[in-house]
Amino acid sequence: MAGKNMIGTVLGIAFDIALMILLGVAIFYGIRLNRQVSAIRSGRKELEKLIADFTQATTRAESALSDLRQEVGGSLDATRKASLKAGELCDDLEFLIKRGEKVADALETGIRAGNKTTARAGVGSVEPAMDRDEPSAAAKRGGRALSAAPEDRVVAAPDKSAAKKARAKSKSELLKALQDMR
């Protein structure tokens, strides 16, 4: 029995030694784990501070972005309005140009009509100076007088008034077109 006791004692001591070694290893890892947890706790405080700073920065960025959107929206609206107004002015200018061309054509037609009536009235008045009772200076030099006889002037007066009426009508059309643009 003494041999069994001894084996039991040696085995008990061996288990105790193995248990002490395992407890030593557990204590070593416990200390190491405690250091890591302490590092995490201190890092957590820093992380919370970083998260708070990040949240503030995000809030400021969102605010700045909102302000930027409002400013860009206002600028975009102003640009759109200016663009629409420019388009309207362009359309108005095109209308004025077309209307001006029509009025210019009417004026030109009126002027030509006035010149033709004046020329027709003056055609009969061109006569040699020798045939007239009083020769002019051009007749004395051997030329023709281009002045109209008093009878021709009376005939030409209504034609001139027609040309004046045509010009007045063209002017009134131009003024009306300009007033319509306002």
Short description:
This protein is mainly alpha-helical and 182 residues long. Helix content is 87%, strand content 2%.
| Helical content (DSSP H or I, runs of 4+) | over 70%
* Number of helical stretches of at least 4 residues: 3
User: In terms of structural class, how would the helical and strand content be classed?
Assistant: mainly alpha
- For the biggest β-sheet, the strand order reads 1-2
What is the alpha-carbon Rg in Å? Answer: 57 Å
Count of domain modules: 1
Which H/E pattern describes the elements?
Answer: HEHEH
Instruction: Name the poorly predicted regions.
Output: 123-157
Distance between the termini: 132 Å
Find the count of extended strands (DSSP E, 2+ residues): 2
Range of strand content: under 5%
The major beta sheet can be summarized as:
2 strands, antiparallel
Mean pLDDT across every amino acid position: 76
Rough shape?
rod-shaped
Region (Disordered): 122-182
Protein name: DUF6468 domain-containing protein
Biased composition (Basic and acidic residues): 170-182
InterPro entries: DUF6468
Account of the protein in words:
The chain is mainly α. The chain has one domain (49-181). The chain is built from 3 helices and 2 strands. It has a two-stranded antiparallel ribbon. Helix 1 (2-123) runs antiparallel to helix 3. The model is unreliable at 123-157 (pLDDT under 50).
